[in-house]
Amino acid sequence: MTAKLLRGRTLSFKSRPQARDDHGSYVYEEDGALLIENGRISAAGAYSDVMFKTPIGVEVIDHRPHLLMAGFIDPHIHFPQMQVTASYAANLLEWLNTYTFVEEQRFADPAHSARFAKLFFDELLRHGTTTAAAYCSVHKGSADAYFAEAARRNLLMVGGKVMMDRNAPEALTDTAQSSYDDTRAIIEAWHGKARNHVAITPRFAITSTPAQLDAAGTLAREHPDLLIQTHLSENNAEIAYTLELYPAARDYTDVYAQHGLLTRKMLLGHAIHLSDREMDAIADAGSVAVHCPTSNLFLGSGLFDLKRLKEHGIRTAIATDIGGGSSYSLLRTLDEAYKIQQLRGHRLPPIENYWQATRGNAEALGFVDRVGTLEPGSDADIIALDAGATPAMQIRMETTETLEEELFLLQTMGDDRSVRAVYVAGEAV
């Protein structure tokens, strides 16, 4: 694997910005450079400084005036739902039963899973997403196809076979025992192979019996390094039904806590309608509330209360949630997140939004030493962003004077057309 030097305007985060003018939270170089050797960033900084560390004859790839950042990270997305996106439904439960459960049955076919694994990663990379945490279908073969394709492309990906033993079509249900056995087999086959990471994946409390959540809890104790992903408090009807199914639980969050799943490794998709008690429990456990703005708006689920979650000390992430979400683009997702906070009377600085989509999401997944920054030693998963990708953006760029204005323009008007280059472990894809 040959060395290369990327030149461009570089932006990388050191911590979560605490204010619009928190310049100490990030490193920006107007003329920056990244030296890539053996798939990792070996030096980063001003171009004039990095050039001194660069071996003679190394290829220089000049991305100026584009912005070089760590690749986007999507911590909540559904691999089998590419053909569910843009399905017309009134709410979450109607959407699941009418479209999603029908589509996911097709992933029993290994050839179908293999085809869509290729399409899925093509789409992520086209939008600048280089790492994701995905739900596969209930079929073990869907996870095998997902991880095989990720390994072939040398992508750092998280995935898990959905555990689902009730309240779904018979063709989409497993059992507590089979879900445990299949997940164990997937862990043995794929976890730590290439850049793959397996996640324990009970879909949500409605589609798992107490026995299955116990099985998930057993997996979590046996493999404490594994992430756990599920859904929590997406809409009020879901919450009410969950409490009917689990009458001994104090609330929805308590369902997962009672089965040993509420840990620092847990990714809680949506987490919209939470009591103070639930927020305190999530904060104490160190679990992550994953905001899915385009999905929440599309299905009319509710408005994520970022300010209140932060006040409770809860770790957060941001995700597309394809196919409930309506765009694969983290730029489009950041735009909708901004609008939701506007409706809640909370001004969300673009600098914090971009921290969340890169380093913040890497911290949520526990991968910040590998991805999410341009720090030396990090895997060289890098994107080049163009804030003048369309005629309308070029016109607006004529009056853009600051980095904040440029980032805000990118998130407001940008999409896959703004992603000019993508590198995975240092290789252009």
Give the SSE map.
Blueprint: E1 4-13, E2 26-37, E3 40-46, H1 47-52, E4 59-70, E5 72-78, H2 92-104, H3 110-126, E6 129-135, H4 140-153, E7 157-160, E8 162-163, H5 176-190, E9 196-202, H6 210-222, E10 227-232, H7 236-245, H8 252-258, E11 266-270, H9 276-285, E12 288-291, H10 293-298, H11 306-311, E13 315-318, H12 330-343, H13 350-365, E14 382-385, H14 391-397, H15 403-413, E15 419-424, E16 427-428
Parallel strand pairs: 1-4, 5-6, 6-7, 7-9, 8-9, 9-10, 10-11, 11-12, 12-13
Antiparallel strand pairs: 1-2, 2-3, 4-14, 14-15, 15-16
Question: What keywords describe this structure?
Answer:
alpha/beta, nine-stranded parallel beta sheet, seven-stranded mixed beta sheet, 38% helix
For the residues shown, what is the average pLDDT? 97
Shape: globular
Unreliable spans: none
Radius of gyration: 21 Å
- Helical content, roughly? 25-40%
Taking the alpha carbons of the first and last residues, their distance comes to: 14 Å
Describe the overall structure.
This protein is of the alpha/beta class and 429 residues long. It starts with a strand and ends with a strand.
Task: Describe, in short, the structure shown.
The protein has 429 residues and is of the alpha/beta class. Helix content is 38%, strand content 23%.
